[in-house]
Amino acid sequence: MMIIKLSPVRSDNHLAVAVNGNALLINEELFDFSQLQDGEALPRAAIDSPWFFGDVKREGGVLHVALVFPHGPEASEVARFPVPITVTQDGPVDLPPSGHVVPALPSLPQLPVEEPHEQY
Asked: What pTM was computed for the model?
């Protein structure tokens, strides 16, 4: 099991997180904490990533991780004041909506539809 605490920060960056056992995949970069024993902590300074907000600890068999959570200008209260996420299975982590404004896609010109040609 893993508990992820999010530290909200106004930023245009995006965060995607997935869990596989004791490993975290953060924006396609893998961090494996399987060597961290119960009662140990890995200092934030030893982790080469701007996404970690604090030390990574294992207490009572549970991995505790604090991550920076970038949110957009339209962030809801859920994104600005997130609750810790308890992860019990592998896969993508369901993060709160970040409130990033998604730019509208440019409209494409309408192309003429060609009629099928009969073949002889």
From this structure: 0.81
Dist CA 77 CA 57 (whole Å): 27
Tell me the two tokens of residue 72: 């957009």
CB count within 10 Å of CB 90 equals 10
Q: How far apart are CA 100 and CA 40, in angstroms?
A: 36
Token pair in block for residue 54 = 């604090």
CA atoms of 113 and 23, how far apart (whole Å): 50
Least confident range of 28-37, 38-47, 97-106? 97-106
The stretch 14-39 carries a mean pLDDT of 95
Distance CA(47)–CA(41), nearest Å, equals 11
pLDDT attached to residue 111: 58
Q: How many CA atoms lie within 13 A of 35 on its CB side?
A: 3
